[in-house]
Amino acid sequence: MSDYIEVEKKIYIPLKPVTVKFHEKEEVELNAFQYFILEAVEDHATVDQMIEATQLTKNVIESELLHMENQKLLTREGGIVVLSELSKNILMISRTVEMLNEEKKIMCVNLISGDMEGYEEEIYQVEEKELVLREKIRSNDVVGINIEDNVSFLADYMSAFDKLTEEQIDTVLSSVYVEFYDTDKKVIYKERKVYKLPCLIGDDQLTFEENVYAEGKCSVITLKASTDQVEKYEGQIESVLQLYTDAPELFSDLASDLVKEYRYCEKCNKDNLTFVYDHESGRISEKIYDTTEPLNKRTQLMLKSEKKIDADVEKQIFTVAKEKWKLDEKYFVKITSIKEQNYKIGFCLEELGGDIYADK
What pTM was estimated for this model as a whole? Predict the structure, then answer.
């Protein structure tokens, strides 16, 4: 039997639209004059051209070139001053950051996972009755998002990265930090369809999260062993037992058998044999599960109970009980109580979005 319940449910995941401003970490601080020198060297400008552009003396220009060589920002190849790898990266990062900030794209922070996502106009505003996952991150406090955890998204989403290599993108993103700014758009939601959920009774070990769960129905079934004779003389059995203890020789074989049957039933029933029947999956178990009543009705999937306790279910339970108690044909099993309860199954967002629950 499957460990999963087939369902078709929609859930809505909260997203916070934001604009993002990128800032360099300034591991190497350059002044405006040094940036001018780097760009001039990149354009193969001569010292005379730098003098003409800045109206500074030759001594000042050459002194700064020497200073930048000592900083490993410039190097000489055949007597010609060229950019070092460090300064090439500095210029690449600076220009990319400028381009990133010019894009002014709206992004979204997933308020469950903390991941950054693209903004889409068709993302839903949901009705009150819909299932919405409760935010783990407050919508007005979207700080501390790790840029390096979102490299793939940013590389695809931001046009400034289109002509850069993967190595260059990694270099840029490891050299910047971001600030998030509110937009005029409120929290929005994206739809996720779920096609199956774990059974209450199954072998699958789940990562439980309190912010989302499925609620279903189960029945706790209590059993007892008995015989026709025990049932027939149930009202007189206590007095019969006392008399049998005092004078067993007075009892007929029929009466002696009654006492033995009763005592064997009593021994079995001390086990307090209880089964749990899951109305969602149709599974049966002797294990008692968490049946805590959920509080927030908007953070759960309400499952539709379709499988009832019928003759086949009773037969399964009775067969297990007879084997457990080692009952012969004289004995039978009866249900003494059935208590219906709600239960909840926890699962996490990553599982909902993965191959387990999202696949039909």
Answer: 0.58
**Tokens linked to 225:** 């062993």
Q: Which two tokens stand for residue 39?
A: 């760009």
Q: What angle do CA 146, 147, 151 make, to 5 degrees?
A: 130
| Nearest-angstrom CA–CA distance, 197 and 12 | 16
For residue range 294-317, list pLDDT tens digits in order: 445 544 556 666 788 999 999 999
Per-residue model confidence as pLDDT tens digits over 60-108 = 988 888 888 888 888 888 778 888 888 898 889 989 999 999 998 898 8
Helix (H, G, I), strand (E, B) or coil at 302: strand
The sign of the dihedral angle between the CA atoms of 9, 129, 278, 314 is negative
Please choose, from the candidates 93, 91, 74, the residue with its C-alpha nearest in 3D space to the C-alpha of residue 167. 93
Copy the structure tokens of residue 140.
């007005």
DSSP 58-111: HHHHHHHHHHHHHTTSEEEETTEEEE-HHHHHHHHHHHHHHHHHHH--EEEEET
Pairing state between β 188-198 and 116-118: unpaired
**Residues present in the chain in total:** 360
Q: Are 351 and 357 in contact (CB under 8 A)?
A: yes
